[in-house]
User: Fold this.
Amino acid sequence: MTDWIVPDWPAPANVRALVTTRAGGVSIGPYESMNLATHVGDDPAAVMENRRRLRAHLPADPAWLNQVHGRRVVDAAGAACGVEADAAFSRQKHAVCVVQTADCLPLLLCDDTGSVVAVAHAGWRGLAGGVIEAAVAAMQVPAQGLLAWLGPAIGPRAFEVGADVREAFLAHAPEAAAAFVVKENGKWLADLYRLAGQRLNAAGVSRVFGGGCCTLSEAERFYSFRRDKATGRMASLIWLE
Assistant:
């Protein structure tokens, strides 16, 4: 498992989660080494070997999604491989929810009783479009009984955006202004972690853990699309034992 991440959060014992990094695979070049994405130009045989290595740590094959920066949520227990969605949930044991990222924020969710889990792919478009709210709603339990964990994403000192991105968030909630810092060039630095926390809190989820990584600046450990363009994808996975 090398330096893969096991989330540090007070989830029930039957909730299992894992986040891969660049380490542990066989891909070469810009995809070195644990690229899990089939759509980025990597050698398909290398991707399949990387997925085989990941599978050894899981109870079942993950429900791989075709992510489109939207807000659709699917049930991982019945989802076809490659279904178009940006979040997944499960109430069934051993159904593995997964999203892939390389700067966007992966968000894990579970409830206090260990009856349901979810994962969301939350870049700025997904966050602004309500993917967090959609994932919380799909879990069908009181939001105050949920815990959230924020996985590795582009950090607040590295994520430069235009005024249109800031306005998209402010149009939804004025308090989003606190997550943006203006730069001398007229652009803005956006804090995905803070924006996600605001959305979670507004949805009723007050216990939020994780955050603090920066995929762009931690080049040895994480893939970053903004840094490298041609690059791989990490996987964030959650399931019930």
